[in-house]
Model the fold of this input.
Amino acid sequence: MYRLLLRTFVRERLSLRRLFGQKIARSKFQSILMVGVLVYAFGVTMVSNTLLQYEIAQSLKAVGDISPMLYQIITNLSALGFLFGFFQAQGYLFQYKDFDLLGPLPLSQRTIVAAKISMMLVFVYLFALIMVLPTYGVWWYESAAPLMQFLLFLPMAMIAPIPLMLFGSFISYLFRKLTQPWIHANVLQTIFSVLFILSFAAFNFISNQILPASWMIILQDFDFVSRWFVSAVAETNLIAFIFFIGLHVIIFVGFVLTMSGPLLKINQQRTNLIYKGKDKTPTHPQSVMIHLLQKEWRRFVGTSIYFINTGFGILILILLSVISVFIPSVISDLRQVMVAMGIEPLWLIFAIIGFALSTVYTPAVSLSLEGKNINLLKSLPIQAWTIIQSKIYFNLLLTFPVVLLATIVGATLFELDIFIATLFLIVLVLFAILLSVYFMYLNVWFPRFDFHQEVEVVKQSLAAFVAVFGGFSMLGAILWLNFEPLASFDLPTRLIILNGIEIFLIFTMIWFLKRNAQRYFQSFSV
Amino acid sequence: MLIIEHASKSYDKKKKALDDVSLTIQPGDLFGFVGHNGAGKTTLLKAISGIHQLDQGTIKFDGLDINQNTLAFKSKIAYVPDHPDLYEQLTGRQYIDFIADVFKFGIQERNQLIENYGKSFEMQPFLRQPISTYSHGMKQKTALIAALIHKPKLLLLDEPFVGLDPKASFVLKEIFKLMTESGMSIFFSSHVLEVVEKLTNKIAIIKQGKIIHQGLTKEVLGKQNLESLFMELS
Done:
């Protein structure tokens, strides 16, 4: 039964239609473009990662030990497992959409849980191909390892993500259990998840300072699992191999045995809600735009994966702005270093804010996230352009306040004069609008309405994928314009020219978008 | 025989979706279940199929308790929800095979049944296509074929006639009759009162989680029709 279930899950989850959308693209040109982008991105990532790993291997060889590469492999696999478990358990392990289908079947809950975990692992393997394969390939090449070592490596690498994946799933389950009774369960879970990840990151950042050295040594000693992995692969240590496999199998079986019951229960209770709020009766009609913006907001805060992926840049900018205020001396030193290098400090602010803005790609996915509701929207007497505008405005409502905060803090700490700071703020605001319109373009071009889980749109859709990389490219293009063709102009002139270029691009893109909005909407179907 | 005793369930710990429901469905019964939207029909069907857990009460089929002999219980039933959420990337045939494999149903007989049901429901030309390309009615037919393929002893259906074309509705009613004649039990909810009235031998009317009327269709209705009785009771 386990194999039957897993085979069915793989067929369902990994079909090309599922990965790339119902109609892979609306034209042959789009299909070719899509395949080209994917092949290019995969190739570039693999090649650059391999080259990077090769450089690391050369440095390690110089000190006579390349085993840290193996530690890196198991760390990456474990981290991938944790992130997948933490963010995907809800939807894969519990509160999955096919519960109504699987629930009435004579399948043991343990079999279902084991097959669901295995399906999550399959997704981890896909990411591991990009992240881990180059590292192992370089290690294998540099150490001239025999085939036996690969045969030991493969099963260990395949089960290495399990412990932290199950731990991440358990944390996610606990959050869900805590928040489930409340009507705003999704929002609470999103908040918990963000706080957890930020706390974890902060702890990692400062653990060296706050934990006594003896504790760190104990923690390192506790990491016997990684040592088994390295010893089995590097020294063909069969005992370490057996210990490693045995421990992971015990963890897997233990989780399935102990958690199957609670997971079934949380699935069966999925509609339990405690509703304590009172609906406010509206006193006057609201504009369509306000309704659309409210809808965007509810979806944003109510969908963890959406909030975390597209809101992280905003959170980081707020955090950086606040932290910067408390470390003026560090900022001052940084400013002096940049001046000494002949780089105007404001471009550092631009790079940081621009980078963060590129990750707030809500318009690139929010149309797809309408899912089957797109038919409802199409049936209503609302202009397609109004819907598109609402998605752009929502993005700008998210980014404008943060851009303003970060620019004011940055301009103050880097001692920009008011005229330059104002021109610079306009460059940033226009950049935010430019990105927003560009993101929107991607979504109308590559819509994806036939998803089962939001993650398929937010992380796995072509629009999301191209959005982030395209955003970085735009950032790079503006910096290049500043440092290369416009280098001979003084700073105010450069800022004015950049503003002009951005305004031109924005108006051109909006003109095309507005002109074709209705046509695009007519072609949408699900 | 399905025996439901004192079944209660609440989603919010305040209002009861099911309130002390007791029902018995004998072999060969074609049992209709009617009530307003939100009266508790789907909740009861989902509780029988193991999707929801009751707060109180028991559900037994052929002596098997759903909580104590879960797999044995489920191996005797089939459930078709009102909006079947099937594995959309599978073809209709792959999905039916998946269900048949879960019930360990033999390949020879399966092929024969798929052919027969495929023809009856006019689904044969589409079974090799992905479910994602199906209309609602085609999904409903696929779910019905998958439910019938393993010859369950109890068939649970939530609004089975919604989305079906007239011919498929007719075929389904004929299948219902054939199955109940062979000793199978069928328990279905419906808002189509004429169908319930003409088709069933037993009915139950549920209101705000409570069964307010149940028994042999002829006896419950007396001289009035189901629509007037329903309007009178609601």
Q: What stands out?
A: The interface with chain B takes residues 1, 4, 8, 11-13, 15, 17-18, 22, 97-101, 103-108, 265, 268-269, 271-275, 450, 452 of chain A (CB under 8 Å). The first helix of chain A runs from residue 2 to 13. Chain A has a mean pLDDT of 84. Residues 2-185+223-268 of chain A form one domain.
